[in-house]
Design brief:
This protein is an all-beta fold and 469 residues long. It is 2% helix and 48% strand. Strand 33 (449-457) and strand 34 (460-468) form a beta hairpin.
């Protein structure tokens, strides 16, 4: 049941199928692709940025068999890691040894050389593994720890070389007959582990389990959501403010967590055909519903540190995309498409408004790519402040060519976004640093109706309506 629960909830995050490659374009893409040196095409599952060094990121990936139309993990034949140590400019990769039919839970980078990973195989043997040589070799850890190999390893996380936790599904202990989440801590790099007492872990309702890889850490805080296997819904959120020593809980009813800091976070709940976004600004205690995000399947979503903008990737089809980069500057009240739809990205993670990484869906047509965010910082050029500028549109209404003139007191670089009323990006232009800039949009092929033009600089942004005759 634990394994089935993991699969059902994972299906909310990704489809365990192979994906076709979209045609490549060159329209100011938001993501710079890089192809690691690995011998296979794989699909990324979990990506994490090292705490204390945002130039280091590791991802865990799986090879899916494209033949069966199934979410069956036993068709997965390999686990891989992919990593960068120079801010995403170069990537390398290799394999992580597990048993037959392996399935990944998470990966946790400590440095360029040290990382931890967890997962399970088709014999329901669970793994906690460590590498200290950059992924060349991996060794199993915590062999004598978990009560049963059938207890699913939800995640392993290390703050540094010495201090870490490993979390598993509920299980009884020698002193406590009722199952509670099996949480182990170490302060010596994994040489010795001790289980957190049932007195420090909230009691577990029947049929509740965790979800492999769905957790978030910022500072000393750790959060992970729980799932009711009988009705397939998110239930509680468990939280520790002291690196896993003691735990409390709230009835959050959300998963797919993304924390910008220790107070601000989002999660999502799938309410077909839309995705409800849940939001907290008090660290996790209270959650409110933001407007549902519509217009396709949600591939990935993050709350950007510092700006609290929300960046989501939506897709119209799991086979052909497009994979649309949707940005909200107002907590989901409105959305603007800022990408070109050509990147098959997943597992977004941001360390700051300008530093972000992503993995990729498995392609049938090219080696797996990893991505470095290459767009404008998700603050500044997309600032929430109002831009002090004179923007002239002529003619407006327009039928063929729309001329845009921007005049400001001090020279600045500008991004211009032409979107339809649903927020979908039609065209994006960039003006180099200038005090008097001009741009032209050919709208002759657009349907008659209303559109919006957004002009952004590091000083702020403004939006003007555009009428197409």
């Amino acid at each position: 049941m634990k394994f089935i629960t993991h699969l059902l909830s994972s299906a909310l995050k990704c489809a365990l199928l192979a994906f076709a490659l979209l045609p490549s374009t060159d329209l100011q893409a938001q993501w710079q692709p890089y192809t690691p040196v690995i011998s296979d095409t794989v699909g990324t599952y979990d990506l994490r940025i090292a705490q204390g060094n945002n130039q280091i990121a590791w991802s865990i990936a799986m090879k899916y068999d494209a033949t069966p139309v199934s979410y069956d993990p036993f068709y997965i034949d390999s686990i891989y890691y992919l990593k960068t140590a120079d801010g995403g400019n170069t990537w390398s990769g290799g394999t992580i040894p597990m048993g037959p039919g392996p399935y990944a839970s998470n990966i946790c980078p400590v440095s360029n050389n040290t990382a931890w990973a967890s997962g399970i195989d088709s014999n329901f043997a669970s793994y906690v593994l460590r590498t200290t040589d950059g992924g060349a070799t991996w060794t199993r850890q915590l062999e004598e720890g978990f009560t049963s190999h059938l207890v699913y390893r939800l995640f392993v996380h290390f703050w540094d070389d010495q201090n870490g936790i490993a979390v598993g599904d509920p299980a009884a202990s020698d002193t406590h007959p009722d199952p509670f989440y099996e949480i182990y801590r170490t302060s010596d790099g994994g040489q010795n582990w001790s289980r957190v007492s049932s007195d420090d872990v909230p009691a577990t309702p029947p049929n509740e389990y965790g979800v492999g890889g769905d957790y978030f850490v910022t500072g000393n805080h750790v959060w992970f959501p729980t799932f009711d296997a009988t009705v397939n819904v998110w239930t509680r959120l468990l939280h520790s403010a002291d690196r896993g020593a003691t735990w409390t809980t709230t009835f959050a009813q959300t998963g797919n967590l993304s924390f910008a800091d220790s107070l601000h976070a989002i999660g999502t709940v799938f309410n077909p055909p839309n995705y409800v976004i849940r939001y907290t600004d008090d660290g996790w205690v209270t959650w409110t519903n933001l407007p549902a995000i519509t217009g396709g399947d949600l591939t990935s979503i993050v709350l950007i540190p510092e700006s609290y903008y929300i960046l989501a990737v939506m897709r119209n089809s799991i086979v052909s995309g497009p994979f649309r980069n949707m940005l909200s500057k107002d907590l989901g009240q409105s959305w603007t498409e800022i990408g070109n739809g050509a990147e098959l990205i997943d597992n977004l993670q941001f360390a700051s408004p300008g530093i972000g990484y992503a993995g990729e869906w498995q392609s049938l047509e090219h080696p797996t790519r990893m991505y470095k965010y290459a767009g404008d910082p998700l603050v500044g050029l997309f600032s929430g402040l109002e831009l002090d500028a004179q923007v002239t549109l002529s003619p407006n209404p327009a039928s063929d060519l729309l001329q845009v003139q921007i005049e400001v007191a001090e020279p600045a670089a500008f991004v211009l976004l032409l979107n339809d009323m649903q927020g979908q990006l039609i065209e994006r232009k960039v003006l180099e640093k200038t005090a008097l800039g001009n741009a032209q949009f050919n709208i002759s092929q657009l349907p008659a109706g209303m559109y919006t033009l957004t002009v952004s600089s590091e000083k702020g942004h403004l939006t003007r309506p555009v009428s197409k005759q």
